[in-house]
TrEMBL record:
<dbReference type="InterPro" id="IPR005275">
    <property type="entry name" value="Lfuc_symporter_FucP"/>
</dbReference>
<feature type="transmembrane region" description="Helical">
    <location>
        <begin position="242"/>
        <end position="266"/>
    </location>
</feature>
<feature type="transmembrane region" description="Helical">
    <location>
        <begin position="115"/>
        <end position="141"/>
    </location>
</feature>
<feature type="domain" description="Major facilitator superfamily (MFS) profile">
    <location>
        <begin position="21"/>
        <end position="415"/>
    </location>
</feature>
<feature type="transmembrane region" description="Helical">
    <location>
        <begin position="61"/>
        <end position="81"/>
    </location>
</feature>
<dbReference type="InterPro" id="IPR050375">
    <property type="entry name" value="MFS_TsgA-like"/>
</dbReference>
<keyword id="KW-1133">Transmembrane helix</keyword>
<feature type="transmembrane region" description="Helical">
    <location>
        <begin position="308"/>
        <end position="327"/>
    </location>
</feature>
<feature type="transmembrane region" description="Helical">
    <location>
        <begin position="392"/>
        <end position="412"/>
    </location>
</feature>
<feature type="transmembrane region" description="Helical">
    <location>
        <begin position="153"/>
        <end position="174"/>
    </location>
</feature>
<dbReference type="GO" id="GO:0005886">
    <property type="term" value="C:plasma membrane"/>
</dbReference>
<feature type="transmembrane region" description="Helical">
    <location>
        <begin position="278"/>
        <end position="296"/>
    </location>
</feature>
<feature type="transmembrane region" description="Helical">
    <location>
        <begin position="20"/>
        <end position="41"/>
    </location>
</feature>
<dbReference type="GO" id="GO:0015535">
    <property type="term" value="F:fucose:proton symporter activity"/>
</dbReference>
<dbReference type="Pfam" id="PF07690">
    <property type="entry name" value="MFS_1"/>
</dbReference>
<keyword id="KW-1003">Cell membrane</keyword>
<keyword id="KW-0812">Transmembrane</keyword>
Amino acid sequence: MSTYSPPVTKSAAKFTENKYLLTFIFVTSLFMFWGIAITMADVLNKHFQHVLSLTKTQSAFVQFAIFGAYFVMGIPAGLFMKRFGYKNGVLLGLSLFAAGAFLFVPAAAAASFTYFGIALFILGCGLSTLETVAHPFVAALGDQRTSDQRINFAQSFNALGAILGPAIGSYFLLRSNVEGSTDLTSVKMLYIAIGSVISLIAISFAFVKVPELIDPHMAETDPDAANTDSAPGKSLIQHRHFVWAVIAQFFNVAAQGGTWAFFINYGHEKMGFSDATAGNYMVLFMGMLLVGRFAGTFLMRFIAPPTLLAIFALGNILMCVIIAQSFGWPSFIALLMINFFISIMYPTIFSLGLKNLGAHTQQASSFISMGVVGGAVFPFAMGAVAEYDVAAAYYLPILCYFMIFLFGYKFYKVR
């Protein structure tokens, strides 16, 4: 593992430029909102086990609906962004996000898990659109040499949202859980509030004037600063680092989805916590994601992003082994640490996969977003094992982190 020295160029690469600052702040805030939505789904997973009498395997359909939407919406979102631009892509994502939240009202009235699945799928389509658009949008708001830092910084606010999601969900959904209750009023009211806030954000963003972008993914003035195509004769699929980024993202979100989905179950079954207490610990769990994002952004000034990615992947392999042993607090602390090491994985894989793709960049963003479908399928496998022993289920993500290690160690290289 080598230390990283930024390349010497004619001028130092700025984090972003003043003309992009307002847009950058607004787009960065969006990372927080979809962080809230995704982690609140993990609280819903546990809540639905109670009020709708679901098994752990059945409740994994919550993750399947959201992350499955990423797979379905990835390419359409990318095409929409390419045709209508970044701003309209954001507005489409926010509109779908709000529509999915409001559909919780008829789903709660019917007390139907199928209807909730439809609402979560539409909400997930909104989240997928936002992620597909926001990553290349943030990368375009400045020099490519600092795009890793910008994306990791923006993802730090996604981690803040990941803290708020379980905190809000635990307070409104788990705090007053009564054994045998089938009341879904709290779910309905919570998602009405979410839909209203997201609608206001969409209306506000409609009035934000986005400066004309000289997209660094298309610019060709400085091969270090701009995302010029390193091999113009190749099709997108022939760029090996991009293909490996899609694979790595699949396994990354697979591990993340399974780990988050059964965190509360682990706290309840292995540590003896109540559901509400386990939900409160999930706030700390997501806090580790925030700490890791800021720490990762800082460390990337000295350690090459792919090297740091490989180190963090090895860290999580060790954490999974400790968790699976059911050592009590040492295992629970290892479970909390998983999110510290997960922290940089999604944005770093995304950023490395977009390097030197030139005109292919927006299409590549769609495919890397589609890799998130790993989070739709992997919780089923972990749920099946968790029916017998939730600790043993944490052996399964080891394969995922090994694949991420390979990407960070070798296969990130642009050829």
